[in-house]
Amino acid sequence: MKTLHLSRRPGYEDKKTIIFDIDETLIHCVENIVSDKPHVVLNINLPNGGSVKAGINIRPYVKK
């Protein structure tokens, strides 16, 4: 787990902060772009010069 230190805005020093982790909530990465038939396919260029394709599915009702 990573610790994150956020600065407090003036007047909010005694308030709590809520952080929502929405990873994999609105979109979902699929492993096999051939059989899983993703909604979107991204071509990702790697630092070593290679590239990979990542499939993304958009969760139901996100667009609404």
Question: Can you give a write-up of this model?
Answer:
It is a single chain. The chain is mainly β and 64 residues long. It has a domain at 27-58. 0% of the residues lie in helices and 28% in strands. The chain has no helices and 3 strands. The protein has strands at residues 27-30, 40-45, 51-58. The chain has a 3-stranded antiparallel β-sheet, with no helix packed on it. A hairpin with a 5-residue loop joins strand 2 and strand 3. The model has no long low-confidence stretch (mean pLDDT 86).
Please describe the biggest sheet, giving its number of strands, its sense, and whether it closes into a barrel. 3 strands, antiparallel
Strand content: 25-35%
Helical region count? 0
Alpha-carbon Rg, integer: 18 Å
Features:
64 residues; mainly beta
Would you summarize the structure shown here?
With 64 residues, the chain is mainly β.
List the helices and strands and how they pair.
Elements: E1 27-30, E2 40-45, E3 51-58
Antiparallel strand pairs: 1-3, 2-3
